[in-house]
Amino acid sequence: MEDRRLQQHIRAGKALVEARDFEAAYQELSQAIRIIEEDDIADLLTDEMLAELFVLRGSAVLSEYGTQAYEDADILNQVLDDYEQAISIQPENTIYYILRAHIYMAAKVGNFLPEAKLDITTALEVDADNLEALKQMGEILSREKNYDRAIYYLTRVINEEPKAEVYMIRGVCHFKKRPGDFA
Description:
- By secondary structure, the protein is mainly α.
- It contains ten helices and no strands.
- Helix 6 packs parallel to helix 8, helix 7 packs antiparallel against helix 8 (131-143) and helix 9 packs antiparallel against helix 10 (164-176).
- The chain is elongated, with a radius of gyration of 19 Å.
């Protein structure tokens, strides 16, 4: 019985995300998580499925609130809690660290750059060649004004997958490291 109810809420939540009804999706996914927690039935799902459930709920909140999610500490913490749950369930999944680092870097409340750097460092420890993690490390180091190291990481990305965005970030690093402190 619980399995059927759980699956209904998960299916409904996913369908509502696809339909871009993020508030309703959040409600359905929250209900699925409540069923799992209250009835202690997490074993009905694989770790991957359970972690994805938390990420999907966090993503629904981000999508519902848009840029406001990055400006409101309560909303931001709610999203970060869901990503933390996903990471605690599947600590070897680098994408969760990368996604959470994106959120940290976009946050307008507080300074989460150290947390973003820790997440990207962890992702790179698991997969040293992950291009998205390398790019983010370059962006983090650029924000820290460590331009030479930023250029190193961004060049690694460009060598594997040249993209205008990465060239632009690297170019800004070259410009800012010039004598005369243009930053």
